[in-house]
Amino acid sequence: QVQLVESGGGLVQAGASVRLSCAASGGTFARFTMGWFRQVPGEERKFVAAVVRWSDSLTYYADSVKGRFTISRDNAKNTVYLQMNSLKPEDTAVYYCAAGGINEPLSFRSSRSYDHWGQGTQVTVSS
């Protein structure tokens, strides 16, 4: 059973940077496409970024975070990161890490494509 544990969230001011981490256990990490999603109360979980399985350089981003957020993975440490720069109040959300055996780029952005989820970590950006 794959387990994902996020860390690194907190309260920051607009313009600040935060790095989220997601540590995986219980599976072969490199075979999973890893994604970050975020959710605010009353809304659906939304795609933020993904890094493709068997790759550490093939990445996808939501338009709202492109140029500000960077996803990366360290297969030796079974960890995926989300570096968030130039944070805005609208980035406030619970951030979730997810893992799935996904190959199709069209599937990376859908939460239904992922089989395993972390518990989430809150990021609050004050104005």
Account of the protein in words:
- The chain has about 130 residues and is mostly beta strands.
- It is built from no helices and 11 strands.
- The strands form 2 sheets. Strands 2, 4, 5, 6, 9, 10 and 11 form a 7-stranded mixed β-sheet that branches.
- The radius of gyration is 13 Å and the shape is globular.
- The termini are far apart.
- The mean pLDDT is about 95.
List keywords for this structure.
single chain; 127 residues; four-stranded antiparallel sheet; 0% helix
Question: Average pLDDT, to the nearest integer?
Answer: 95
- Rg measurement, Å: 13 Å
> Between the first and last Cα atoms, what is the distance in angstroms?
40 Å
Number of strands: 11
The proportion of residues in beta strands is over 45%
Uncertain parts: none
Let me know the largest β-sheet.
Answer: 7 strands, mixed
Could you say which overall geometry the principal axes of the C-alpha atoms support? globular
Query: Which class do the helix and strand fractions yield?
Result: mainly beta
The succession of helices and strands, N to C, reads EEEEEEEEEEE
Number of helices: 0
Helix content: under 10%
Describe the structure in brief.
The protein is mainly beta. It has strands at 3-7, 10-13, 18-25, 33-39, 46-51, 59-61, 69-74, 79-84, 93-100, 116-117, 121-126. Helix content is 0%, strand content 48%.
SSE inventory with pairings:
Blueprint: E1 3-7, E2 10-13, E3 18-25, E4 33-39, E5 46-51, E6 59-61, E7 69-74, E8 79-84, E9 93-100, E10 116-117, E11 121-126
Parallel strand pairs: 2-11
Antiparallel strand pairs: 1-3, 3-8, 4-5, 4-9, 5-6, 7-8, 9-10, 9-11
